[in-house]
Amino acid sequence: MFLINILLVDDHTLFARSLSVALDEYNEIEHFYSTQDIQGIEKMVRDKNIDIILMDINLGNLSDTDGLEIASNLLKSIPMVKIIVLTGYDLPVYRHEAKKTGISGFLNKNISPDDLISSLIHVSRGNTCFPSESNEIIIENLTSMEKKILQLISSGKKRKCVADELYMSERTLSNHLQHIFEKLDVSSVVEAVTKAIQLGYIPPIC
What is the third-level CATH fold of 144-199? Predict the structure, then answer.
């Protein structure tokens, strides 16, 4: 039997302990480790011969960056390690970014232990595990400016205030909004903000 060494990177200690207990009964797992030491992940992967990292996206106060960026950096320094995003923020834009980064899978924290084990085995054999995209629409990527505009508008700021803060005219702002509407296939600011939240372009409020 092929045994797997797992490392969980998550800011919730209770979740880490619960997952450790849940996986303890599965013979496929040789060792399960968890850490909140972001700076020490690479050393731990090498020292413990980690096969798969389970990485949360939102790491709270553990890091100034999110799990996707940390995963991307790890894959550059340790390309042989496999990373699966295990998160409660199951949004299309995050899944899309994970695939572009070279991450091996994307799982919701609501997954059952049996399904998690199946996914771990699947990935350990060189495969990927992502949710079915049959009902998922991948939207043309918004630019950083377009994301910033939506974030400011979603915070309740008026168009003039948004334009002033971004050092642009209201006409230029209107042009940006029109491009956003076309990309998101919507016809109003309210619809654009709603869809941006659904897709994950506007970060969840923690």
Answer: Arc Repressor Mutant, subunit A (1.10.10)
Taking only the tens of pLDDT, the chain with its 206 residues reads 568 999 999 999 999 999 999 998 899 999 999 999 999 999 999 999 999 999 999 888 888 888 999 999 999 999 999 999 999 877 777 888 888 889 999 999 989 999 999 999 999 999 999 877 544 555 567 888 998 899 898 888 888 999 999 999 989 999 999 998 888 888 888 888 888 877 777 765 44
Distances (CA, A) of 25 to 12, 133, 150: 22, 32, 46
Task: Check residue 126 and report its DSSP letter.
Answer: T
Residues 71 and 85 sit within 8 Å (Cβ to Cβ): yes
Residues 4-124: name the CATH superfamily. Response regulator (3.40.50.2300)
- The tokens describing 137, both together, are 């629409």
Question: In the chain, where are the structural domains located?
Answer: 4-124, 144-199
Phi–psi pair at 100, nearest 5 degrees: -65, -30
* The pTM of the whole model exceeds 0.85: no
CA distance 184 to 143: 12
HSE-CB at 66 with a 13 A cutoff on CA atoms is 14
Q: How many Å apart are CA 131 and CA 143, to the nearest integer?
A: 25
Beta bridge partners of 84: 54, 105
